[in-house]
Design goal:
- The protein contains 4 helices and 3 strands; from the N terminus they run αβααβαβ.
- With about 100 residues, it is α+β, with helices and mostly antiparallel strands.
- It has a 3-stranded antiparallel β-sheet with strand order 2-1-3.
- Pfam families: ClpS.
- Keywords: Hydrolase, Protease.
Length: about 100
């Protein structure tokens, strides 16, 4: 049996942490652009539902408008689902999507 060095143990622990972090946020909450909702409504909704600051919500709204969609939040499915439901109830087009490998 070989003796493990501190470097080997640290490297293995670091790899375990990195894998756990990748698995922690496998989904994204995507908001889609539409011709119905105003900037102010989307901004207010992102603040109230997703916990964004006004500046974050404003930036997300601009990106959504210009790119057609934007992942406004990343996380575990069970944490994103209530946010998705709240946005959809407000008339905002949103989906939960599995994130591709980073």
């Amino acid at each position: 049996m070989s003796e493990r060095t501190n470097t080997q143990v640290f490297t293995e622990e670091l790899e375990d942490v990195l894998v756990a972090e990748d698995e922690q946020f496998p989904f994204s909450l995507v908001v889609w652009n539409d011709d119905v909702n105003t900037f102010d409504w989307v901004i207010a909704s992102l603040i109230e539902v997703c916990g964004h600051t006004h500046q974050q919500a404003e930036q997300c709204a601009l990106i959504i408008h210009h790119n057609g969609k934007y992942a406004v939040k990343e996380g575990e499915y069970h944490k994103l689902r209530p946010m998705w439901e709240a946005l959809v109830e407000r008339g905002i087009s949103a989906t939960i999507e599995e994130m591709a490998d980073r």
